[in-house]
Amino acid sequence: MPKPFSDPIWQRPKTVSAFQPQPAVGAVDVVIVGGGIMGLSTALHAARQGRTVQVLEAGVIGEGASGLNGGQVIPGLKYDPEWLVEHFGKERGEALVNFAASTADAVFDLIRDENLAVPLTRNGWIQAAHTETALTAAANRDRQWRARGADVELLSQAEIAAMTGAKGYLGGWLDRRAGVVDPLAYTLELARVTAAAGAGIAPGQKVVKLRKDAGLWRVLTESGLEVRAKAVVLATNAYTDGLLPGLARTIVPLHSFQIATAPLPADIGAGILPGGQAVSDSRRILVYYRRSADGRLVLGGRGRMALPSSAADWAHLERALIRLYPALAGIAIEKRWFGRVAMTPDHLPHIHEPEKGLLAVAGCQGRGVGLMSALGKRMAGYLASGDARQLPFPLSPIRPIPFHAFRQVGVAATIAWYRMLDALER
């Protein structure tokens, strides 16, 4: 099968990283399956607690969604605080609100405290409203977070035009707790400090079988390696396969496509996101965008369900770019790439423990940089204590989505329908 067309903007450093892959060992306290942000964060905090940890990654560190995403570090969840309290009850709901508020801090504090070499800007994230309905929702969100002391602000039409330079927005919402990072640099640096903390990290080790024997989990890889562990954490998210029966059918993996322009000329770039904020808009099939450290505009959104094969597969994003910024019509698109995002039917991350010592996390909902960084620390706390109060989300049984095999077809049709409705709302 030919390799899909993909040329990401995020590049591995030319200098040799301090992180070097290590051969896996035979027996540890914890095996982490998946070397993305979730797996590495869990491994780092577990190792810092004195546990022996082995990360097994099927591919290369950073080649999955953790290193390919847009690098937006956004606190919160898809739901607002009042919904979370109503849905989960006052005690757990308030705890979950506090956790959601902390997810961006988890990233930026780690970068600062560990002195990670990660390009970043922390000037906030804008949720841009293109309809009156979206603006009303933004005002409601602003009220709820402001009541909890968050550094947020409702933006007028003039204010959002000045902050984004984009056309077509009626207003929006600014969350100053957010920011942007180079996601590949962050993932690689997270791997480096995780290895320095004593965790083993072995790329190229695809796990193909799990079984429990005499109180220990035996983890077998495709290459024939076997690692024994007291506990196993599956952190494969959108790349989940059939390793744990039913788990892959609890999520819908979607493709998130992105493009990056050539570095913008100074006269054009000066009016586009001058404050360095990230933006996500309110459309049904949203687009999200930011400036890169070298002055490009990076824009992403949902792509086709099939693997891309040519530059034409990103044409819908190029049209969105020009709709927002007509002055960019003559600027070359130099990079095109894609990654996977895992969505759950209720738009919340799920934590499963089908057997004692076997944990799985699924569903980053497109906010994985902050969410999975913060959740990894909580997972490590649960592994150490067994106290479910360490977890922000309740443990839930694995519930496969009915008719999952047809869900992708339905999602593709829904995306096409929503894209048409969005076009009518221009």
From TrEMBL:
Its EC number is 1.-.-.-. GO terms for molecular function: oxidoreductase activity. It comes from the Bacteria. SUPFAM superfamilies: FAD/NAD(P)-binding domain. Keywords: Oxidoreductase. The keyword Amino-acid biosynthesis does not apply. Pfam families: DAO. Residues 29-380 form the FAD dependent oxidoreductase domain. InterPro entries: FAD-dep_OxRdtase, FAD/NAD-bd_sf. The keyword Oxidoreductase applies. This is FAD-dependent oxidoreductase. It comes from Mesorhizobium abyssinicae.
